[in-house]
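RECORD TYPE: inverse folding
INPUT: structure tokens
STRUCTURE:
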């Protein structure tokens, strides 16, 4: 059976999946990435490192007949290239905070690629003059596959200022004075944008001529992989960071750090993203395996210690504070207690995020579909269900790489019908229900968590 390849370029690594039209995973692989965080709010990566990692992954997952490929990547990360597609500087990642002041002037936060582009124009004018295209990681890597640069999708384009409803660039782009020739041409996720070149075939192992389909942000790909498909469905992607999404029939007003994607199936997907997330756990504890830490943490939950954990200063949602830092209140002396405190904190942040969305009129009060590598943890999923006090649903393949494969399949197998691809390829692996005896205790601890945040000015 022919397969499609989905590739996810995350903060810590590249993951690839080959899947068939029924959602069966044929092969998968991953390769690690490193980041430059040498000073303060700076966070950069080398695009060439992405390409090497993508090639290493695709060479391992490419088996049999390949019908298409799509790539997803972090939202708001910026790549500036010359006319030949060569990057003129390292990529600026989504949580790089150097453009905070620029973003404030534009009414945005620093996670927007638009704010990053204006920052480069003001602070690095020589590099700006060399730049021809403003792209995102998925855009640039698709160009490496097809040989054609200057394309994006309306999911990645959102934080550069693209309005999918108006099908054009918004007022913030005009206010920033970005020249139109530097902006990419924007297409629908899952739309065919080219084919694998002979040069890319030699490096990736994907046969020349295989169609390449437009990807999306990692959060939107995670939404597709989760199985959420109806208005009112909510989704949390648990990758390096937390990403919230909800599906709505009508586009809500953006507010308080919430932006609104257009889902490829035609529904609106308001959402937000945090700077904290499961990736923080890998940063603070690299010695112990995830399964072993979960076992130790399970005996320490609920945890009396409350805190907020960030791998670098600054938070963007559920509150905006460029100076926010990690804190922990209460005793957490053992490995199990520390891991329990961190998992509990992430669940509290997730609950806070959904409360903010509902305060803004976004219906997100039902079951939560989960995606991302950390969603596979039964301990974490059970904790989240009790903290959120709602069912948590885990898909069979809850990764953004699989979501990218779904997007490729929508073009390759389903005539562009993303909803049909999601229905055919996703299925539920497990459902975690709230523990009635624990939910009240978690509600009390959540109140203490919010009070501790408020004392530090972390809040609206």
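DESIGNED SEQUENCE:
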């Amino acid at each position: 059976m022919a397969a499609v390849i989905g590739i996810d370029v995350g903060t810590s690594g590249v993951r690839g999946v080959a899947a068939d039209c029924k959602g069966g995973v044929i092969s998968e692989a991953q390769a690690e990435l490193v980041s430059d965080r040498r000073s303060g709010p700076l966070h950069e990566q080398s695009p060439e490192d992405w390409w090497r990692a993508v090639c290493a992954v695709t060479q391992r997952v490419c088996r049999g007949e390949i019908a298409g490929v799509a790539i997803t990547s972090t939202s708001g990360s910026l790549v500036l290239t010359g006319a030949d597609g060569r990057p003129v500087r390292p990529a600026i990642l989504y949580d790089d905070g150097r453009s905070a002041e620029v973003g404030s002037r534009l009414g945005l936060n620093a996670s927007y690629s638009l704010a990053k582009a204006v920052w480069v124009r003001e602070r690095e004018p020589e590099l700006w003059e060399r730049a021809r295209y403003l792209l995102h990681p998925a855009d640039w890597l698709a160009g490496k596959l097809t040989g054609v640069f200057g394309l994006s999708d309306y999911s990645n384009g959102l934080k550069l200022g693209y309005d999918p409803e108006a099908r054009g660039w918004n007022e913030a782009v005009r206010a920033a004075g970005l020249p139109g020739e530097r902006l990419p041409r924007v297409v629908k996720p899952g739309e065919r944008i080219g084919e694998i070149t002979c040069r890319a075939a030699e490096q990736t192992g994907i046969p020349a001529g295989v169609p390449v389909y437009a990807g999306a942000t990692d959060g939107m790909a995670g939404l597709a992989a989760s199985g959420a498909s109806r208005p009112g469905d909510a989704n949390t992607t648990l990758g390096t960071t937390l990403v919230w999404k909800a599906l709505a029939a009508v586009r809500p007003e953006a507010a308080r750090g919430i932006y609104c994607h257009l889902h490829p199936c035609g529904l609106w997907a308001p959402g937000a993203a945090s700077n904290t997330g499961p990736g923080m756990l890998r940063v603070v504890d690299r010695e112990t395996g995830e399964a072993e830490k979960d076992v130790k943490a399970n005996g320490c939950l609920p945890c009396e210690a409350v805190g907020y954990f960030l791998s670098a200063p600054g938070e963007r949602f559920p509150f905006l504070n460029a100076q926010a830092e990690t804190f922990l209140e209460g005793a957490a002396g053992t490995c199990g207690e520390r891991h329990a405190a961190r998992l509990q904190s992430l669940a509290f942040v997730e609950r806070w995020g959904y409360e903010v969305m509902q305060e803004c009129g976004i219906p997100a009060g039902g079951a939560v579909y989960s995606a991302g590598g950390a969603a596979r943890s039964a301990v974490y999923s059970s904790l989240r269900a009790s903290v959120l006090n709602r069912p948590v649903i885990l898909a069979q393949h809850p990764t953004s790489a699989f979501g990218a494969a779904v997007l490729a399949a929508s073009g390759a197998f389903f005539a562009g019908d993303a909803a049909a691809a999601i229905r055919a390829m996703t299925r539920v692996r497990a459902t975690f229900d709230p523990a009635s005896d624990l939910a009240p205790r978690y509600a009390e601890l959540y109140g203490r968590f919010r009070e501790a945040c408020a004392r530090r000015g972390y809040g609206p």
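NOTES: The longest helix spans residues 335-359.
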